[in-house]
Amino acid sequence: MRQQLPTILFLLFLFGSLQATASETTSAGEVHMIKVEGVINPVMAEYIGKAIESAERDMAEALLIQLDTPGGLDPSMRDIVKSILSSRVPVVVYVAPSGARAASAGVFITYSAHISAMAPGTNIGSAHPVPMGGKDVDEVMMKKIENDAVAYIKSIAVKRGRNPEWAEKAVRESVNITAREALKLGVIDLIADSTEELLTAIDSREVETVAGRLKLNTKDATLREFEMGLRLKILNAISNPNVAYILMMIGLVGIYFELSNPGTIFPGVIGAICLILAFYAFQTLPVNYAGLALIGLALLFFIAETQVTSFGLLTIAGIISLILGSLMLFESPLPFMKVSLGVLLPTVIMASLAIVFMMYYAVKLHRRRPVSGMEGLVGEQGVVVERVDERGGRVFVDGEYWNATADQPLEKDTRIKVVEVRGFRLRVERIKEDEQ
């Protein structure tokens, strides 16, 4: 037994060494990464929520969110903050690349992260709440909204150990600072030039999550980037006010074409799909319903022009209503929540021209003389075969013999033209010399 003891000890040592080596080689797992660029809206909230769920399911070391946003909707921002605060996986928010910003809603998201970082040349701030939808908010209500936002961001700051005084100033005074100033004021945890540098810098840091205190092991972790799925990409694209506006105009033109030319089907189907997509986008945008009503009124004016002889007045009224409604459609002091004039004016012009062209074509078809059936005989020329007067007679028109009447007596072989069809009897008149 004593002779076997050294062998046993050697085997135990060897097994422990192999286990330690295996542990070292497998300890560095994955860091999931997503890029959040653009307006914070329900699509972005869903994207970040699903990314957190995926990181938890795969037991990732951390979720890295590369952030560049001008701000967005308060409900979406709060959904994102709640997802981050309740995450079992450490969430790292990295404001990058250089030139990026974390404005408005981005400040709240950055504050809520377990670790917050910024790239050189980035900025953060301007988190004052802005009422959406063109609604007039009185001073008292605005103060309530502001105080609510201040209390919310200060509670996040206290939880994450960040500067609550600056957070309050960002909301009340819309202050904005650079990455270096943010680090100095305790707004963020560090500055990193790249994601690789960031992962190395946060290695071995301990953070507090809902799952308890965790130590990050990110230095040699594999960075796995998750792109937004096709469905979310489409929804995010149509949530852009410029895209939503174009979809609405295509929808209106398609519906107008279908109503003015029943049975074409295709324009109506395309128009209905575009309108549904536009109305989905309107849920995430500050829509002024007076502007939407004016655009609907413009469509009614255009349709009425095809039924009523207004000598173009209804068309002019429709175009004016369309322009005013388009200008009023999105009410927001934030430029990224409004339609660009570079998009609005060409779209209005093109839609108006398309509607006027279709209107002209429809009126032209409506007024065109029939070319088939009994009505198609009006204007046709022929010859009298039996004397025609008010009591009757016979004529030869369009290869057939017809009973006819005339206001003035017409003798045999007189050249005539048809001026009216009454049942199966024609009313004719002599062809003038200049018409022959």
Structure, described:
The protein is elongated. Helix content is 48%, strand content 18%. It has 14 helices and 16 strands. It has 436 residues and is an alpha/beta fold. Strands 8-5-3-2-1-11 form a six-stranded parallel β-sheet, with helices on both faces. A five-stranded mixed beta barrel has the order 12-13-14-16-15. The chain has three domains: 203 residues, 2-enoyl-CoA Hydratase, Chain A, domain 1 (Alpha-Beta Complex), CATH 3.90.226.10; 128 residues, no CATH class; 62 residues, OB fold (Dihydrolipoamide Acetyltransferase, E2P) (Beta Barrel). Helix 2 links the parallel strand 1 and strand 2.
Spell out the blueprint of helices and strands.
Blueprint (H helix, E strand, L loop, with lengths): L4 H23 L2 E8 L4 H16 L4 E7 L5 H12 L5 E5 L5 E3 L1 H8 L2 E4 L4 E3 L13 H22 L3 H9 L3 E3 H6 L5 E2 L3 H7 L4 E4 L2 E4 L6 E4 L4 H9 L2 H20 L5 H17 L6 H17 L7 H16 L12 H27 L13 E6 L7 E4 L2 E7 L8 E8 L2 E6 L6
Broad CATH class of the largest domain: Alpha Beta
Could you state the oligomeric state of the chains shown?
A: single chain
The helix count comes to 14
**CATH homologous superfamily designation of the largest domain:** 2-enoyl-CoA Hydratase, Chain A, domain 1
Choose one word for the global shape.
elongated
**Could you please say which CATH topology of the largest domain applies here?**
2-enoyl-CoA Hydratase, Chain A, domain 1
pLDDT < 50 runs, ≥5 residues: 9-15, 17-27
Helix coverage percent: 40-55%
The largest pleated sheet is described as: 6 strands, parallel
* Total individual domains: 3
Mean pLDDT comes to: 85
How large, in whole angstroms, is the Cα Rg? 37 Å
> Would you count the extended β strands for me?
16
CATH hierarchy: architecture of the largest domain: Alpha-Beta Complex
For the termini, the CA-CA separation is: 135 Å
Q: Structural class, judged by helices and strands?
A: alpha/beta
Secondary-structure element sequence?
Answer: HEHEHEEHEEHHEHEHEEEHHHHHHEEEEE
Strand content: 15-25%
Strand order of the largest sheet: 8-5-3-2-1-11
